Every structure is written in C-alpha cells, then in structure tokens.
Task: structure prediction
Amino acid sequence: MDEKIKNYVITSILLSALVLLPLFPVRGDIDQSIQYLKTKTPNPWVTMALSAAGEDSDADYLKIFVGASASDYEAAILALVAAGKDPKSFPNENFVQKLKSFYSGGQIGDPSLLNDDIFGLLALLAAGEPIGDEVVSSAKNFVIQNQNADGGWAFAILSGSDTNMTAMAIMALLESGVSKSNANISKAIQYLKDAQNSDGGFPYDPKSLFGTSSDASSDAWVLSALNKLGENLNDWKKDERGPAEHLSGLETSAGYFEYQKGNGEDAFSPITTSYALIALRGKYYPVSKISSSANPSVNFKIEGKTKTYCEGEAQAPDALELVKIAASDCSFTYNIKDTSFGPYLEQIGDDKASGTDGWLYAVNFILPSVGAADYKLKAGDYVLWHYGAFDWQPQSTSITLKTKVGGSSGSPGDNNPNQPEDEISLTVSIPGAGGSLDFGNILPGESRAKFVKVTNSGDVSLVIAGIVTGNDIFRGYLKINDLPWRDFGTNLSAGASETEKIGIQIPSSYTNPGEKEGLLIFWGTPTQ
Result:
C-alpha cells in the first residue's frame, strides 16, 4: 500500500448550543434548607452547600484553623475553594502545601486508609494542582489500585466496599482525567446499580449485617456522583423513585434532612443536610475549583502503527508533556531523546522512529512549526500523536451543529428524538462538504437527534471514528448511533455510505445555562 494512503481523512462538525433551564430545576424545599444551614455553626460542608446553592458562604472560621490530619486539610481546601478563596494563601497560610506534607510512599495520609487519598485528589485538583503533579498522579494510581473486585471502594484498605466511598472515588477519578468509559468507572457504576434498594435510595453498605436501609448521606453522595457522570436519573428509578426522590422524602418542614425516616434532628443533621443540598442542586465534588492556567484540559489520541496507545482527556502544558501524562494513565513505555534541536519523541511502545517513519503530532489537525515541548496547549485543543511517514498531513472540513437547551418546548418537529431531520452528506475525504445541524430546543432530561451521511469517496476501506472537543455539554452527552461518542466505530468500504445518528441527551440535573460550542470530528483510518 502506498504510504501516503495511511494519512487520516477527516470531516468535522462545529457544535453549538444555547442552554437554558426550566424555572424550577431542583427538588425539595431548598430555600428552607438554606435557611436552616445559615443558623448553624459554619463548617466545611455547610460552606460547600451554601456555595452550591448560590449563597454567600463564610470561610472566616478557617482563619484560625489548625489541622491534625490530611483529612482535616482536605475538607478545609474544598471549603475555601467553594467560598472563592485561594487555599494557597488564606489568610497567609498555604493549605495545599500542608496537605502535601502528608504525602509519603505514593499515597496521602494514613497508609491504612483510602478516604484521605480520595478526598486528597478532590482537594488538590480543586485547588488547581495539575493532573500531572506527582502527588496527584500517585494518589490517583493508589485509588485505582485499591478498587475492590466488586467494583467498589472502601473507607480503609482491604475493607469491604461501601456506596459512599465508591461515589466519591468516581468523582475523584473523573476529576483527575479518567473517562466515564474507563473500565474502573464502569465497574463502579455497576456496583452502585447492584447496591440500590427497591425504594430508589442507597444504603451505606448493601452487605452490612447492621442494616441495609437507604439513608440520606448515601443517597446524596451517590446522586452527586450521578450528576458528575451526567447520568439520566430516570435510568436510576425503581417504581418511579430514584435517589433524588428518596432523598427529597427525608427533608423535614424545619429544613433539615433526616438520616433515615423518623430519626429526627441530631448533631450531624447540618452535615447530612449539606450533602443533600449539594446533590439536589445538581452539583458534585469538588463544588468549585481553581483552574490551572498552565495546564489546560485537552482531548488527545496517540495512534501507533497498528494500535491506539491511549486516548481521552488530560491536563497538560505542552504536547510532549501530554505523552508523559498519558503514559502514566495507559501504562505504555516511551523514550524521549535529547537532540541539538530539543527533546524528540523517539519511541512509544514498539513503534520507534526509523528511516522515514516516526512520531508526529498535530493540534486541531494542523502540524505546528515548533517542537512538541514548545507548543503550549490551550483549553479545548485536540492533540493527535501519529506514527507514520514524515510527509503525513492531517486535513479537515467542518459542519455546524446548533441547539437550544431549556426554556420552552421546541418548534414543531423538534420534540421527536428518533425522527430524521435535515440530512447532511459528509465525505470522509478531502475536500468534504460543509453545512449545519440544529437540534432545536431541549429541556434538561430531554433528548434530540439528527442524522448525517458519511461517505467514503476514496479508493481504500476506512475505519471511521468520532471525536468531540469543545464544551463539556457535548463532550459529556453527545452520542453517535446511541453510543457514547468515544465508543463509536464503523467500517466503510471504498465508495460506501452510512447514515449516522447524532444524538444528545441533557441530564435532568443539568444546571449550567448559556450558549455552548464544540466540534464533532469524523475521521477515517485506512484498514490494513
């Protein structure tokens, strides 16, 4: 086969959306709970809850804070960031540095515990520490390595799984760049599915000898994890009741949430209520975070001669550092050689530069004129590392997608997600066709779909894949042929066409209105 045919052929679709919200996007009498928390002594959980509810939250009590453990500093950092304070200088102390002082032997805090590693991840990432930071990366690996066989996580090492730590571990790993389709996350979701009670709620431990009744804390933490995952809450209902309904049923007229029905108020009620308020507002952990300007979030794929080494999302300052971060996540080896022109990526796995073949990188399908170590990435970039001939040239065309999420129902014809609408023919080669897709109006909890025709107008068979960049609403919720876009793939022989369903479903918990834009890219790889 001619080496030049190994080039990728690409068609891209510009995505856009206007996200609005229904008038009452939350459940329960949240105002009553807010007033209840305002009467209580502030603590990190109350601070996070009030911030999640859009209220001013007090952090002055942390000016005299003295922590004795990693967990103490983790809660304080999460609260400070939620309150809009910098934990690296509040009021004149570096909470992040204090937390990192508990790092030893590849883990944070007590080596017999796992909860301080899970919350350590959340706290450090909330404070703006990059995913590639040594402590963050090590804690992430430690959490992954200590997942139980049933898919859950426990409070302590070598202990039985519980729903609370499993929910928090899911949020921590997602925050650290692990994708929803990752096997560890999939196993954890299944653990939660299996743990759910018939009343729609969740127990702390579904195997506990001391009782397996649903409780507010477990409901809330699992619900926050589902919010983070972008799950459709209707899929988590049993007899029309899910965790949100069960949790809402534990709210009292005084504004606090009972741990279990009939328990009444106790010293822990403000914290239980804080958990509930965060979850029912559609929020998750960390409630807020400080962006790391030096390490933007990018999408990437590392494509070898015969296999994909890694793909997903990561935070990296430059294209070469991205390889190092991906190597840690996907467990591949690499070799970077120092040359007179700067560092050079010589090898990944079995693919080593030789003759006219080597590793090249493209950002947004353009070959930069500088070395990978010198190319500073921006948020939303798509980075492709490719092993092949040095005359490789990625190319692309674009098609616009539009939608309006929320507000009133859409115009006629917009409300049937399975009804084919404007068909746009794409050619998976260069030149390709332009055009636009408009999803119409969408409310949280609803879905829409459009159809595009992908045509292989070349003379070799192609493996077609999809990539989504841009706003989180598209990266998180767009599907191709009812599959998460990361899982989409199809084979097209030369001259063949195929119609693909492009769908989006907005979670009922979605609470971030505004115009959104992204890019859907179809690309083809010649079959071997």
